[in-house]
Structures are given as C-alpha cells and as structure tokens.
Amino acid sequence: MQSNKSRGSIRGRMVAVYLIVTTVALLAIAYVTSGLVESFLVNQRTETQSEETVRLAFELAPEMGTENTENVYQLISERAQTMNGRILVLDTDAVVLVDSASYQNGFHLPYREVRDVLIGAKQSSYGFHRITRDDAETGAEASYWAVYYTAPIVHDGLYVGAVLFSSMLQDVEDSVRDIMMQISMTFLLVMIVMAVLSFGMSGIVAKPIVELTNAIRRMSKKGGVRVEIKGTDETAELGRAINRMSEQIEAHDRVRDEFVSNASHELKTPLATMKVLSETILYEEHPDPAMMKEFFQDVNHEVDRLSRVITDLLRLVKIDETESGELAAVPVRLDAVTERVVKRLMPLADKKGIKLHASTREVTVMGEDLRLEQVAINLIENAIKYTDEGSVSVYVAVENKEALLRVKDTGIGIPEEAQAHLFERFYRVDKARSRGTGGTGLGLSIVEKIVAVHGGYMEVESEAGKGSTFTAHFPLGSTQMGGGEEA
Ligand code: ADP
User: Fold this and answer.
1) Exposed e or buried b for every residue in 465-484, given b needs 16+ CB within 10 A?
2) Which end of the chain is more exposed for a tag (fewer CB within 10 A), N or C?
C-alpha cells in the first residue's frame, strides 16, 4: 500500500518534470521559429515591393510636369491593380496629387518615409503603419498592418514629387499564424506522446526502487535476503550494495553466534570440571585429606582459568565498544611501556630458562598507556609460552614512518594454514597446549583490536618449528611526526 503510494509520487514527479521540460523547450522553439519566419517573410516582401515602387517612380517621371493628370491616374490605377495595393503620387510638398483610390487628393502626408525621399536622402524608403479599415465581409472595423513604400520621382534631374505605394501585410501575418497553428498542433501531439512515454518510462525507473525497498523491508525481518541484479546501471549498483550489506549482516550474525557459543563453552568447561571434582569429594564417606587437597588444587586451578577467561572477555567487550575516535589518546612512550613489561615478565622467562631481552629507542605514539601495555604483555607472554628453548627478543623502533613493536621468538612457530586465523576469538593452534599454559584463545584478538583502534595493524611471520615474529605497527605520535629516525 505504502510502496504503491511512494511509487506513485515518484512517477507523478517524473512525469511532471518531463512535461515541464518539454513545454519550456517547445515554447522556446515556437517563439524563435515564428520570429524567424515572420522576419524572413516580411524582409522578402519589402525588398521586392521597394524595387517595384522605385521602378514605378521611374515610369511616372515623363508623365509629370503636365497639368493633365489623367495619364498619371491611368497608369497608377492600372498598377494598383496588378501590384495589389494603393498608389498615390505626391508633389514635393508631400501633398497628394493623384490617388489610385481617388479620395485623398489634396491631403498632406507627413510620413517619415515620404520626407526621406523628398529631401533626397534616400532612393527608396518604407514604413509600417497600423491602419483601421472596415472588414470587407463583416463590415466591422478591424486594424491591419500596412507598409508604405516611397520613391522619389526625378524628371530631368529635378525632384518633381514622390510615389507612395501602400500594401497590406495581412497575408504575411496570416501565413505566420498558419505556421504557428501547425506548430502548435504538432507540439500538442508531441506533449501527448511525451506524457504517455514519460509515464511508461518513470514506471521502468521506479520499479527497481520499489523492488529494492521491498527487499530491504524483508531483510529487516529476516536475514539471507538477496535482490536480483539486472543490468549495470545505478539501481543495479544499489542492489549490489544491498546484497553486500545483507552478506555483512549475516557474517556479523555468524561471528556473534559463534562467539556466544564459544564463550559459553569456555565458561562451562571449567564449571563442569569443578562440579565433577566437588561431587567426588561430596559423595566420599571419609575422604583422604591428601586426595582432598589435590582435588582442591584442581578446583583452584579451574577457578583461575575461569577468571582469566572472564577478564579477557571483559577486555575484549570493552575494546570492542571503543571506536578509534573515542580513545583517550595522549602521547605515550612505546619504548618505556615495553621496557616496563619486559622487566615484569623477566621472572617468567627465567623460570623457563629462556633469554628475554629488549632493544628499544625513543618512540612516541598517540594512545592509551594501559592498552598499549596490554599489547606488549600479550605478545611477550605468548612468545615465552610458545617457546621451549632459546630466546625472545623485543624491539621498539621506527620504520617507514611507522612506530613498531616487534616480538621475535625461537619457539614452536605457527603452521602456515593457521596463520590466517590467529586473531580470531578463541582460536588456538594447539588447544591442549594453550589450555595447559593457561591460554584463553583471546589474547591475540585483544591485541589486534587495541592496535586497530590506535590506527595500526598487525603482521605475523612464522615458520613451524623455527619461531615466530609478531609486529604491531602504529602511526607515529604527533611529537614524532616528521622527527628524524636518527634519535
Ligand atoms: P592463547 O591464549 O591461546 O595464547 P592467543 O590469542 O594469544 O591465545 O593466541 C592464539 C593462538 O596462537 C595460540 O593458541 C597459539 O596456538 C598461537 N600463538 C600465539 N602466539 C604464538 C607464538 N609466539 N608462537 C607460536 N604460536 C603462537
């Protein structure tokens, strides 16, 4: 219901836009065309009639100068017929001598085009006049455009008068009106076709939008929705983006489900062990104190483990909630943090007979001291945990305008196929070994998260049996931006 409404309004708007654009375009075309046609026709007309008037003046010249105007009248009334107009002959004072319609004799005609030729300024001239006349058919008064053409009459080198030829422009106006009429009819037809076409076209454009909207609506109810992609246009691109988003939502759901089931498994295992142990003691009539002590040691061990898992989970959740912008970042000396951690973990390395040494230079990064410390702890602890003999070397340095914390061990290494999964939550290469050393499988995911919110990234190099190198890359802190690498 609602989708149809939105579709309707999109279509309506599109049709309206099409029609407005077409109307404006057609009106502009009509305006320009009618102007051009009119001026072309009028120009053509005035040019030929001007020439005819000049020729007439030339013919009239020998007839002038005599008192008898009969010949002049004969000539002009005949020409008035063939030239389809009215002809007047004026004297040099612009007074009518002879009129082919013979009712304006003696009138003074003070028109510009008459003056133009009488003072000898021009060989011919014309002017437009709006005249009112009784319509021949209806008898009603109507006004028309007329053109008055003039030419001087020269006899023996003397100006003896002028000829005025008056011609109607109505036929030109009529043809322009006819043309306009035809154009209007054509345009009306075009508009109707445009309306139908644009209605159809807007349907084609609006359809995928409606389909996509429906798909998104379905998606918000349940996952796994995919829209069908047709073509390569913007709507197809939108469809692809929606599918990608749907995939991401599903992947996100999957990761979350997996995490929840892994987390509950990690929490339940120590609890189950503890229950078995405590029940054993509970149902024993007279438990042996030595055995009881051993059992309690085991329970204690499980409690420690549980607490480690919970601590790591809380850490992960907390860092998960932190966006990089929300970090309370201050300049932190990465070298000082690392030295501190190395010192603290020295007894652990000593206990395993592993050499632990650090080589650092002054490096400042922007970040949170305790979180950076967590990165160093997890990486160095892992290196010690997964190394049976040899050494763990820790470096803090600047390379390629990046701060880095590198932890290198000569331990068991990580098989190639496992390297891609190291940073996944609860992932362990060797579950038994990890558990045995108190691992939770969350250490590296916490490391990666912390490094990421600091704007950095992790890098692993390892060969099974030979050792591993974990490197955390960080952007340099502002105090060290552009600072030389020589310090
Ligand atoms: P855990 O708590 O199990 O150590 P981590 O997330 O820290 O979990 O590490 C995930 C897995 O990566 C470990 O279980 C281990 O198999 C492997 N790993 C991590 N660091 C090293 C290392 N320095 N050498 C070899 N394997 C390592």
Assistant:
1) eebbbbbbbbbbbeebeeee
2) N
What is the distance between the alpha carbons of residues 225 and 215, in angstroms, rounded to a whole number? 7
Cβ of residue 441 lying under 6 Å from some atom of ligand 1: yes
Q: Are strands 391-399 and 355-360 parallel, antiparallel or unpaired?
A: parallel
Q: Tell me how far apart the terminal alpha carbons of the chain are, to the nearest angstrom.
A: 70
Amino acid at position 112, single letter? R
Alpha carbons within 13 A on the beta-carbon side of 199: 5
* Rounded CA Rg of the chain: 52
Average pLDDT, the chain: 87
Confidence band for 408, pLDDT divided at 50, 70 and 90: very high
Q: Average pLDDT, stretch 257-261?
A: 89
d(Cα 162, Cα 90) in Å, to the nearest integer?
A: 5
Q: What is the pTM of this model?
A: 0.59
User: Distance between CA 275 and CA 350 in Å, rounded?
Assistant: 36
- The answer to whether the CB of 189 falls within 8 A of the CB of 212 is no
Question: pLDDT tens for residues 109-121?
Answer: 889 999 988 887 7
Is residue 410 in contact with ligand 1, taking CB distance under 6 Å? no
Q: Which residues pair with 163 in a beta bridge?
A: 89, 151
CA of 276 to the centre of ligand 1 (A): 29
Q: What is the DSSP letter of 478?
A: G
User: To test the ligand 1 pocket, which listed residue (308, 309, 382) has its Cβ within 8 A of the most ligand atoms?
Assistant: 382
Residue 396 to residue 338: CA distance in whole angstroms: 8
CA distance 201 to 206: 9
CB 372 within 8 A of CB 336: no
Give the Å distance between the CA of 444 and the centre of ligand 1: 7
Check: CB of residue 147 under 8 Å from CB of residue 186: no
